[in-house]
Amino acid sequence: MDACADSLLIHPPAGLLTVVQEKTTYALPHKDLFDLVGLCTHIDVVGFDTDACVMAAAINLFDEGYDFDVLGEYCASTNGWDYHEAAMKIISKVLARQPEPNHS
User: Fold this and answer.
1) Do residues 69 and 44 touch, judged by C-beta distance below 8 A?
2) Overall average pLDDT of the 30-41 stretch
3) Torsion sign (Cα): 43, 55, 48, 57
4) N or C terminus: which one in the chain shows less Cβ crowding within 10 Å?
């Protein structure tokens, strides 16, 4: 990935489906966005505020069964670093991928 010199925009590799969702609520807008991300096999989540909107989006994706990662290095909180770090700990513990059950 390369970043524009004059902005924070990160450019994904060519050919990757990229969806940038602007929203005014904590939760993801269900129908339209899930129609788009349904085309993806994996979703990377970034944004502000880690301790609110990003966490809510991660919970939505988890509840819907999507494969995703929250890229903490591209997230932040207006409440400060401690809130960002706390949210990332919660996300990694609560929304961690569970091992597949062994059916042997």
Assistant:
1) yes
2) 66
3) positive
4) C
Question: Are 39 and 17 within 8 A, CB to CB?
Answer: yes
Type of residue found at 53: C
Q: What band does 21 get if pLDDT is binned at 50, 70 and 90?
A: low
Cβ neighbors of 55 (< 8 A, separation 6 or more) are 87, 90, 91
Q: At which residue do the structure tokens 């129609």 appear?
A: 35
DSSP 7: S
What sign does the CA torsion over 4, 9, 13, 16 have?
Answer: negative
* pTM greater than 0.85: no
- Structure token pair of residue 72: 């903490």
